[in-house]
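Render this sequence as a predicted structure.
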Amino acid sequence: MGAKDKAVRKPREKRAWYQAALALGINAWLPSWFKGEIFQGGVKGVCVPALNCYSCPSAIGACPIGALQTSFAGLRFNLSIAEKKFGLYVAGFLGAVGSVVGRMPCGWVCPFGFIQELLHKIPTPKVRMPRFMSYFRYVVLATMVVALPLLIVDQFGFGQTWFCKWICPAGTLEAGLPLVILNTDLRPLIGFMYYWKIGLLVLFIGWFILSRRPFCRAICPLGAIFGLFNKASLFRMAVDDEKCTLCDKCYKDCPVEIKIYESPNSPDCVRCLKCVSSCKFGAISYEFLGKREVARDLRVKSPASS
């Protein structure tokens, strides 16, 4: 077989390696693990395009959902002292990322999404998540990230980061557990909230094993925001109806269990591009900045293999 006939693996076919590398990249400050401290370098105020806890010892950036909550939590106080701080940087960051690639960071960058995919590989009976549950992430976004931090404030006018405090299992796994293990000074401070978050994490882990990326699909407010851009982003998915045979191979391989031929740019799609590789008929493609790519038709044998 000549060099031209050799199959070249596309980046989409090595996505797990990209997920692992990017997860390490946004958690690159390893010295903090030996000190039991949180990295506080100058870049810590810069958001990363993933649900990655600010308090993770090695996190080099800020979680956009944590930053967004903080903006809403301090908005009433800032207005009371005539400070016009509306968190526009966070909103602009989310809008910029979403406008370019939509929900693609969920499929390629987010460490917590990667963890869910790894846990789902554990051999157990699997359970499909009901489709209607995907709408619940918008409820979480509207209440826990926006309304409660903005409306329920203390005597000084400050709200709380409700999602981070009461729900986010990524924060428990990436920050809560490691910091308590590494820093003995924190152990006397353990109370109800810590045990609540640990219990919730255990329940989520069980769900991750049984269902495909359920947190991303039903709970994650960052996925809810990025998903709103899928239909209008520069990066676009497409399906050729003439080539599609409705074999459902793409549906079986999809990590979020969607039928892309029904809605190529669904808000649920994390744009992992697994469907492009799995389609044997070259029916699924993506386009970005005028460049279109589609998987080769696997039914056609190369001359060297015939």
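Summary. The chain has a mean pLDDT of 91. Residues 140 and 221 are 6 Å apart (CA to CA).
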